[in-house]
Amino acid sequence: MIEPQDFMSSGKSMLGNVEINNRNAVSRIYYSVYHISLHFAGNYLGFTCVGQSRHKQLIDFFKSRNDRNLQLIGRQMEKLRNARNEADYTLETYISPEDARHELRLALQTIAQIEQQVKTQFS
């Protein structure tokens, strides 16, 4: 079975000087964060999705919490989703290795924040 970290590993392996690889890396990196945050929100915070646009609902769920750390996770996820949408749909925009590495850093930071929430709030 595939795990959320497998998306991150795949994304990291694509980083480089070829633009399509950087676009794919940004997309895979986002999906790693998405699946980790979906698991966290569903298993620890009571998130349930109703209807379509699960991505937006999940981001809005985090942003609407009364916890600054969770709100920050939501804002970072939104940035990562926007970057993924740009990489997937806006072909006129050049996605550089630096752009992809920036998204990687933000994703790793977001995952670390989720792990910290689990550790401090639910252990």
Radius of gyration: 14 Å
Our count of helices gives 5
Overall strand count: 0
Which class do the helix and strand fractions yield?
mainly alpha
* Amino- and carboxy-terminal Cα gap: 26 Å
* CATH homologous superfamily caption: Nucleotidyltransferases  domain 2
What portion of residues is helical?
over 70%
Order of helices and strands: HHHHH
What name does CATH use for the topology? Four Helix Bundle (Hemerythrin (Met), subunit A)
CATH arch. level architecture: Up-down Bundle
**Which residues form runs of ≥5 with pLDDT under 50?**
none
Beta-strand proportion: under 5%
CATH domain class name: Mainly Alpha
Largest sheet: none
**What general outline do the C-alpha atoms trace?**
globular
Question: How many structural domains are formed by the residues?
Answer: 1
Which whole number gives the mean pLDDT? 96
Task: Explain this structure.
The chain has helices spanning 4-14, 19-44, 54-63, 68-89, 97-122. The chain is mainly alpha-helical and 123 residues long. It has a single domain, classed as Nucleotidyltransferases  domain 2 (Four Helix Bundle (Hemerythrin (Met), subunit A), Up-down Bundle), CATH 1.20.120. Helix 4 (68-89) runs antiparallel to helix 5 (97-122). The radius of gyration is 14 Å and the shape is globular.
